[in-house]
Amino acid sequence: MPVEFDLDSFSxxxxxxxxLDFGIVFNNLDxxxxxxxxxxxxxxxxxxxxIVLGLVLALLKIARSRILSWPxxxxxxxxxxxxxxxxxxxxxxxxxxVGLRFESLFFAGLVALSLNSAAYVAEIFRAGIQSxxxxxxxxxxxxxxxxxxxxxxxxxxxAFRRTIPPLTNEFVTLVKDTSLVSVIGLAELxxxxxxxxxxxxNGTPLIAAxxxxxxxxxxxxxxxxxxxxxxxxxxx
Length: 236
Fold this sequence. Notes:
Elements: H1 12-19, H2 23-27, H3 29-61, H4 66-81, H5 84-93, H6 105-131, H7 134-142, H8 147-177, H9 189-200, H10 204-235
Helix pairs in contact: 3-4, 3-6, 3-8, 3-9, 4-6, 5-6, 6-8, 7-8, 8-10, 9-10
């Protein structure tokens, strides 16, 4: 059998000692808190940069010119169609050969997360923009606004309000995806927990990390649900 379970060695006391000994975490709270701060900072900054770049990509994708829309489509397909872990590895470990060297682990992780998030945010914005009634564009053009002005002052603000729930959900995904940056050695939450686990040979730090991720993400998930219900009532 590929997995064996020894009932004779199993006990609740051993389970508590190996997975629920939170004294280990409290005795090393500084390292865990530093990991939490790095995780939150990574997620917040990547969300901001992802929104800015994602909006640009969305506008390029829906442009009438294929010269503009095709590169945006390729970018979105590549970053959505390949694993984030692979992207992080390529960006940090291979770009030095073409003259791009990251001196900061944090910055390397931020670049990878932002580029990946932008691809998903672009699709969120694209769907939001295309959900706006075409009459809004026609009304803007009829009032003398250019295409760009109509998008800026009428279409995009309405689309942005509709995309708030999925953008919040994307932030939840970003918080969890920061754990993948541990592959390059950045001491975010998972890395800090893994280091502590290897030093103590105890699984409690990893359990604590999971609970912290849960404490961050669950309120955001509930907030997303509330925003979606409100948006549904307004558009009904």
